User: Fold this.
Amino acid sequence: MKTVIGILSEICGKAFSECGYDAALGAVCASDRPDICQFQCNGALSGAKIYRTAPIKIALAVAERLKDEKAFEKVETAMPGFINLTLDRAFLCEYLNAARADGKNGMPQMLAGKRIVVDYGGPNVAKPLHVGHLRSAIIGEAIKRIAKAAGADAVGDTHLGDWGLQMGLVITELKERHPEWRCFAPDFDPASDPIPAISAEELNEVYPCASAKSKTDAEYARSAHEATVLLQQKEPGYYALWQSFMKVSKADMKRIYDRLNVDFEYWYGESDAEDYVPELLETLEDGGLLEDSEGAKVVRVARESDDAPMPPVIIKKSDGSNIYATTDLATILQRRKLFAPDGIWYVVDKRQGLHFTQVFRCAEKAGLIESEKLCEHLGFGTMNGADGKPYKTREGGVMPLTVLLDNAYRKALESLDPAKFRTNEERERTADRLSVASVKFGDLINNRQKDYIFDIDRFLSAEGKTGAYLLYSVTRIGSLLAKAADAVPGALDPACPVTKAETDLMLTLASAGEYFVKAVEERAPNYIAEAAYQIASSFSGFYHDVRILSEEDGQKRRNRLALCAFTRAWMTCLLDLLAIETVDVM
Assistant:
């Protein structure tokens, strides 16, 4: 379905064309002066330069054509050549009725027929999820849902870090602690020898310990590198041990992602791309792209147009092991074969920009992709503490994600009055959703490329641009509709008189499509968050300015209840795009 502005632009473009001017001049936008009109067309100003005619003359001619259009209640011109537009009430009602009936709340199907792979999450196996994993998870989930809502066949892949040095470090530390394990014996038999059970808690403790040792013990670091190479060669004992802690670590990660309402269609990792490395190397070799550099294999991707030095991509290290670039390139090959995607979107920290530029250029040179445009790095900024630096614990360490979520949950629980809930379980469930909504909305309302300050007290506030405010708004509408259970809301009545507050709310609902278009085009969930807030704010004005349940006029009461139901549907839809779940009581 087209957006309101899209429809109005077509109408105005036709009028410009009928007057002998370029139809493209009919582009409409929201009014800069909502006190004067709802929309405006500024094409006459641009047309004046092209046709060497006074802009007001063009505007007057076009406005005359538009005065008979049913979409408009009022068409006026203003110096030096603005065309001011106010919608007809019936047109606005019919647009919203059609949008509600299409099952998509009027969201344009901009990506229909496209297949998109969204790479987000990116956790490392055997390492606890920490606050640094939050943004990739929730931004990536929102972008995937937005792509699906735009008609794409979008799938999410967490792209586990499960095949690099961190695996060798974990294996080395476990070998030091448990040299008696059969998986470390030269005659290990994967068919008959047992693999000891390892808990997620032990794994989460092993890696930091191993990483710290490797920084001060050269021999330990060398052993970890050797273990990494052996694992990548699928040495039976190391590979069996790796499979064991992979299962435990993935289950632990899934538990936390479920808590965030984040879901991946695929849990592929760097290890899954390993099978595609031989083909990758053959392709690079056949293309004459691989070069020797101090014992390593590299591909040069610098261009004359580069403003800054562009290092070559390292494909194989001097010890024969793979690195991130190797597996990222092999993963592109894997995804092309498995999914044949029209786009691969990487939701990764913007500080990885150089890496992705290198990888995308190399992929294009090798013919793995037709154009760099197939792959997009959707970078994001950092989540910072009150000091403006990346968020840490009070002791200065990286905070585990579970600790952050638990802290938010406790604060949310404290904010909920027990008297409003039938059971303690209901209150706890509401606190869980409220805390997650507050954390997520506090992040997603920001442009993803910008850093922001994490402030859970502000995010839990029931006022302002917060998840708590939006959940409260949806809950209030639900309560209102429940009280009017005797009158099931239907479609909006185009013939029903409306107040300014009702018109403003309808316009805000209709504008959600414009926000959605920007969210898709810019891969930016903040537009969806902003649209949800604007609707909630507009509904608040409507709720306080008009009578709803107490309205004695039956036609007006039915229409206002329908508007309440429409508002709840739109807000629920937008929040779902952000993977935020609503609640029944607050």
